[in-house]
Amino acid sequence: MLGAGGARGLSHILVLEALDELGIRPALIAGCSIGAIIGAAYAAGVCGRDLHAHVETIFRDRAKAVARLLDARVGKLADLVRGLGNPVLIDGERLLDLFWPEAVPDRFEELAIPFTAVATDYHQHGEVRLTNGPLTPAVAASLAIPGLVRPVTVEGRVLIDGGAINPLPYDRMPAPGRIVLAVDASAPATESETRVPSPLEAMVGGSQILMRSVVQRMIERHPPDILIRAGAEGFGGLDFFRAKAILTAAKPVKDDVKRRLSQALERRG
User: Fold this and answer.
1) CB of 44 within 8 A of CB of 105?
2) Which residues are marked as active site?
3) Can you spell out the DSSP letters for 24-68?
4) Euclidean distance between CA atoms 240 and 59, whole angstroms
5) pTM of the predicted protein model
């Protein structure tokens, strides 16, 4: 189960590399926000190593990546002056089309591994688990951070970021004989930081604080079989252009996953 966490969630890729190296194929994958983006790509058959290379390639060329982000905007800067809306708001579906590997299909039914994208129903204030039909709008809904990525309407429901209600969607996965691996990339508190965040950082950071508190309560109430804290310290939710550094810092996660999965499999006999 791959959780929310913004750029920190790129560390999920190291967990998937560990599964590949162990020769373990998940029976199913659930993802929220960045976890949904990476989880859907992996469920499509893109291995961890290829995802790693894909992400580093995308964010290595900053100018090209920024151009893609600008192409994914809903509005223009002139809209702000005319009072027509948010000029930085991003169309999540277009963003995925620009950044996902080409191997990701259009529909859930075409995935190699069953996959669930978790979103939040804006009006009903409830969790929504999307498991079939068009894939891109479902994942775009899961990552629709309010004020940054516009909401998505799926089957008549207005959906936003799944991290608002269930940032680590493992709670419905336990079953007899199943090992539930939950990967938490939410941001821990920092004790010595005094820098005042920018408005955009504060917006994303506020959602990160909320997600961390929700995850902590979930774990205290009903922990997964294996909990991996994958997000390396020192990185923020918007640090996508530090992708290589995030992936490098998260390398110890691979050994942790291998060790703990091997132990769990031995206990299960």
Assistant:
1) yes
2) 33, 161
3) ---S-EEEETHHHHHHHHHHTT--HHHHHHHHHHHHHSHHHHHHH
4) 7
5) 0.91
Residue type, 227: L
Gap between the Cα atoms of 9 and 34, Å rounded:
6
Q: How many residues does the chain have?
A: 269
140 contacts 96 by C-beta, under 8 angstroms = yes
* Token duo for residue 102: 């080409």
Tell the residue number behind the tokens 């809904």, with chain if given: 141
> How far is the C-alpha of 221 from the C-alpha of 240, rounded, in Å?
32
pLDDT in tens, the chain (269 residues): 999 999 999 999 999 999 999 999 999 999 999 999 999 999 999 999 999 999 999 999 999 988 988 888 886 544 444 444 566 789 999 999 989 999 999 999 999 999 999 999 999 999 999 999 999 999 999 999 988 899 999 999 999 999 999 999 998 888 888 999 999 998 777 766 677 888 778 878 888 888 888 999 999 999 999 999 987 778 888 899 999 999 999 999 999 999 999 999 888 76
